[in-house]
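Cont'd.
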Amino acid sequence: MFKKQVMLECVSALLILLFLYASVSKFLDFKTFYREMNNQPLPNSWTPFLVWIIPCSEILLCVALIFERTRLLGLYGSLALMGLFTIYATLILLNVFHRVPCSCGGVIKRLTWPQHLVLNLFYVILSVVGVLVQRSKSFNSISFTKNSFV
Amino acid sequence: MKKIKWSILSLAVVLSVCGAFATRPHFDCSNMTQYYFSGGVYFAAGVEGENYNCDQGNGACTYYTLNNINYYTCQTGTYCTSNCFVRPDGKPIKPLKPAATPVNTQNNAK
């Protein structure tokens, strides 16, 4: 139980490290982030929404991951967000958009798209592990509570 | 357990916020007028996403200047306008309008 809890804290910490770093970097250099969003092969009309939705959802996920009550929700959210980023990186590499834009965001912008994909896959796996551990932990605590009543 | 939890999480929060501040660009050339280099001439590039795009590549995509004499690389990548939105069938998806006023004919990019 103790090992599982420490593992869960480490998974949450790694996800918080990524999301908080990425969101704060975006807000610190908002103009560049806006410009880089325009450079992505998505409709430019989406940019005013995406520049707020992406960093704000990253911060919300960090808050959800910190507290025990909302952690499972945060882990599912992280899985969804990292899954979306992974699908996007895969589509870029498969040349679905017919052009490869620059990869952007803080120090992460120095990564190439294949490196991006590997990083995203690592975080997808980390989120899956987090969800499984959290679920098993919740299940154990529920069964423990039920047994204690019997 | 609570002590371990809060130590790990606060370390992650502090590291990420400090890391973001530490890696923030101190001089942001992208706020300056962007130029592209074509045939020995510098042209004002206009607005990224509207007039041009920078695709992945190792070369200089756009340049900036402080004195209209020396031009320095700002964004890396490959400068493109309508040619970056060409489908395999040759039909443009989203043609962009490049700014076409020559600015400096000297080839003194750094």
